[in-house]
Amino acid sequence: MAGNSGPLSPRAKLAVTAGKAAAAVSRAAGRGSGSVIGGKVALKLDPDLLARLATHLDVVLVSATNGKTTTTRLIAEALRASGPVVSNALGANMPAGITSALAGGSDARYGVIEVDEKYLAGVARDVTPKAIALLNLSRDQLDRAAETRMLAERWREGLSGTDAVVVANADDPLVAWAASSCPTVVWVAAGQEWKDDAWSCPSCGGVLQRPGDDWYCGDCGFRRPPPTWALSGDYVVAPDGVAWPIQLQLPGRANKANAATSAAVAAVFGVAPKVALERMYAVQAVAGRYDVVPYQGRDLRLLLAKNPAGWLETFSLIDGPPAPVLLSVNARGADGTDTSWLWDVDYTRLAGHPIFVIGDRKLDLAVRLEVAGLDFRVCADVDEAVRSAPPGRIEVIANYTAFQDLRRVVGN
Questions:
Q1: How far apart are CA 392 and CA 404, in angstroms?
Q2: CB 77 within 8 A of CB 280
Q3: The pLDDT of residue 159
């Protein structure tokens, strides 16, 4: 909860100053924003700094496999209706990056913080959030992250007994099981397009039954909790039954789901759905995602898809054939070095599109597309792909580091 933090101790002030200096050096050297190295330096000097920086803030934490950066941005925009917000808007979502972000928010009232799934319980202990938003859990970074049920168990154990209001997706069985240990849960029917990580009951291991939008376990009785908020087409249905229109500049069903969750979170802080949803319209792009950029006389729409669930959602929002599609996949540390997830993506959804393939692991992707029976061309780089593409806006879909590479090249 927010309170009067009082001035920072001399040690904490030194840690903040040293962290900002380290970040500035990193930026000057062209190594990115410097938020991570700055946070690491600051936490080395004061290991309790994250907790100290959060004491004057009403904090909401956002965690998920997909959608947490966008949802963090939407919640931040909604809460600005009630006061200044500090947020790790660029997605540095481990303790060092979060510490860096909060160090710049001494005048803020709210902290809206995206948190990596593995670190959620620890960060929640440090910052005593007022609300926690849990969107989904699916396989991602197979070499780094535990399998999804283990992550759900970590959430379930780490958040049990929390004082926070947990706003959770009732349609994801793993999230529902994780959140059901929490005393106060607001359930949102946000949908679940990708179901391949949630066919077995997280509680007992039995087979989940999925009639329509419902789900339940016939063995132990664990079932979908009744939601109090719901996404219904282009509307968010609030607990009082009023349907509020969602008007976003961000495309796709997944972002409507993110907006529904964001409206439920904003209500915890006293921001009415009408005000929250109207403010969300201001968000045009999130850290470059969904931006349309001109490059070599063509328009490129930049889309991020990091794992099978993300690719599935992205395929649903691109222009239909014959719009050209450029795919780029890397397998660096931040992506996860295991590319076997490519085989879980239904690339046949791209049938009819001219497809161009680049990235460090373009040959891995080419084999997958070959097996899917698609026509495609492997290119050396984005320049060759753009030159080769037929007319029309090019839909560019890339995983994490490939997306950052493309942003640097096309000047976004």
A1: 23
A2: yes
A3: 97
Mean pLDDT of the residues in the chain: 91
**Structure token digits, residue 161:** 């007994």
Smallest CA-to-CA distance from 266 within 69, 119, 130 is with: 130
Cα separation, 51 vs 147, whole angstroms? 29
CA 167 to chain centre: 15
Residue 232, C-beta contacts closer than 8 angstroms, at least 6 positions apart: 243
CA angle 194, 267, 225 (to 5 degrees): 45
Instruction: Say how far apart CA 390 and CA 96 lie, in whole Å.
Output: 44
Q: What is the pLDDT of residues 66-85, one digit of tens each?
A: 899 999 999 999 999 999 99
Please tell me the distance from the alpha carbon of residue 137 to that of residue 117, in angstroms, as a whole number.
9
For residue 173, which of 146, 205, 143 has the smallest C-alpha distance?
205
The beta-strand segments (E) located in 24-149 are 58-63, 85-87, 110-114, 131-134
Residue 5's closest CA among 72, 69, 81, 86? 86
pTM of the model: 0.87
Task: Please list, in sequence order, all residues whose beta carbon lies within 8 angstroms of the beta carbon of residue 179, skipping any fewer than 6 positions away.
Answer: 134, 155, 156, 159, 166, 168, 185
pLDDT digits (tens, 9 = 90+) for 338-366: 899 999 999 999 999 999 999 999 999 99
pLDDT tens, position by position, 29-51 = 877 667 788 888 888 888 899 99
Pairing of strands 229-232, 235-237: antiparallel
Treating both helix axes as pointing N-terminal to C-terminal, what angle do 95-103 and 10-28 enclose, rounded to 10 degrees?
A: 100
- The pLDDT tens digits for 274-289 are 999 999 999 988 888 8
